[in-house]
Automatic annotation (TrEMBL):
GO biological process per UniProt: termination of mitochondrial transcription
Protein name: Mitochondrial transcription termination factor 2
Coiled coil regions in record: none
InterPro entries per record: MTERF (IPR003690), MTERF_sf (IPR038538)
Cross-referenced Gene3D superfamilies: Transcription termination factor 3, mitochondrial (1.25.70.10)
Any one GO CC term of the record: mitochondrial matrix
Signal peptide (UniProt feature, chain positions): 1-18
Family to which this protein belongs: Belongs to the mTERF family.
UniProt keywords, alphabetically: Signal, Transit peptide
Pfam families per the UniProt record, alphabetical: mTERF (PF02536)
TM annotation in the entry: none
GO molecular function terms noted in the UniProt entry: nucleic acid binding
């Protein structure tokens, strides 16, 4: 019986700690719904049934500031439907203190070009804006730090929106990772004049790189150096991987490289050249690579074609087969032609496909043929 009571209390404690940290000091949980919150959300055309299903605990909190949140968003230029969408996705916003929300607005406007863009960010990343008041000092210090690096304000805004955890923690942690990236860039022969642009590009492509331990970056670069990559090639890989080098680890890369080496049947030097053409090969697991190699080979594509255009391995088998069928319908045989036409995003493929279609439809111009002139 005592064990059952203890278990029940533990479960109850787990439920309480699951509530966001920023809500506990100023809000209390009631067994009944806060009717003022429900009515205010209803007046704003928010989907209350969806909130009850996914985040029903919000409706039991008191006090709530639904009207104040709506007024803040409306004053920034948000329309009624946008306000409803924001509160429908992130109803916790109604539990934020109005003074804190105003402080957040001022903080974000220090890096955001205008209120219209800020509303767009809040619509996409509401949890990044409606954060704990305890994070405000860390956010301000991190903004000041990234501004001291002369980073573009849009890059700072993107970092705040997509990786808010990196701004809610002490600035010293970000300083360590940024210094590690800068040191790696210098040691690999990167030009000092281009470092700011390089860092901006890397952070914008993968904002979560800041949340990774600096040791991971060092270990991965040492592993790749041991595999024979030169310093210039390592800098190229670090840039091409778009910051995802911190998502890797030596064990996974060792397995992937071994599988690619055996499947392709090439030398280590040839494999390094293939990796430089398609760095994504480093982070695809063996199972995905096996499926994609098999899909290409079963379509009649040779291994020499794959090694010539290895970026085709970045595409799923379904996408490859779809594109092959579209090209085949236009008379293009990928088994004898270049695989370059298969590559790229959907937009890239459509452009290549359109050019291919124009070349086939456009009549050849013969400069020595007599022109037909109407009598």
């Amino acid at each position: 019986m005592l064990r059952l009571i203890a278990t029940s209390l533990c479960l109850r404690c787990q439920h309480v700690t699951a509530l966001p940290l920023n809500l506990r000091p100023c809000a209390t949980l009631s067994s009944a719904e806060n009717q003022q919150t429900v009515e205010a959300l209803y007046d704003l055309s928010v989907n209350i049934q969806k909130i009850r299903k996914l985040k029903g605990w919000v409706l039991h909190q008191s006090p709530a500031y639904t009207k104040e949140v709506a007024d803040l968003l409306r004053n920034m230029g948000a329309s009624g439907p946008i306000i409803a969408r924001i509160l429908g996705v992130h109803p916790e916003a109604v539990l934020c203190n109005p003074k804190h929300m105003q402080s957040q607005r001022e903080l974000w406007m220090s890096v955001c070009p205008n209120q219209k863009e800020l509303v767009g960010i809040i619509e996409k990343f509401p949890a990044s804006f409606f954060t704990s008041s305890s994070h405000h000092d860390n956010q301000r210090n991190n903004i000041a730090y990234f501004q001291s690096l002369n980073l573009n304000k849009r890059i700072i805004t993107k970092l705040m929106a997509s990786a808010p955890q990196s701004f809610s923690r002490p600035v010293e942690q970000n300083e360590v990772m940024v210094c590690t990236l800068q040191q790696a860039y210098r040691e690999l022969g990167g030009e000092e004049a281009n470092m700011k642009i390089w860092l901006q590009k890397l952070l914008s492509q993968n904002p979560f790189v800041l949340l990774k331990p600096p040791e991971v970056l060092r270990q991965n670069l040492l592993f790749l150096r041991d595999k024979g990559f030169s310093t210039a090639e390592l800098l190229r890989l670090l840039s091409s991987l778009k910051g995802f080098v911190t998502e890797l680890n030596p064990d996974s890369m060792r397995s992937t490289l071994a599988y690619s080496h055996d499947t392709i049947g090439c030398s280590e030097a040839e494999l390094r050249d293939i990796i430089l053409k398609c760095p994504a090969l480093l982070y695809y697991p063996e199972s995905i690579l096996a499926e994609r190699f098999e899909g290409l080979l079963s379509a009649g594509i040779s291994m020499s074609q794959i090694t010539e255009t290895p970026t085709v391995l970045e595409l799923t088998t379904q996408i490859v087969n779809y594109r092959i069928q579209r090209l085949k319908a236009r008379g293009y045989d990928v088994r004898t032609g270049s695989l370059q036409v298969l590559n790229g995003t959907k937009k890239d493929f459509e452009m290549s496909f359109g050019k291919l279609q124009l070349r086939r439809e456009r009549p050849l111009f013969n400069p020595v043929a007599p022109l037909k002139v109407d009598d």
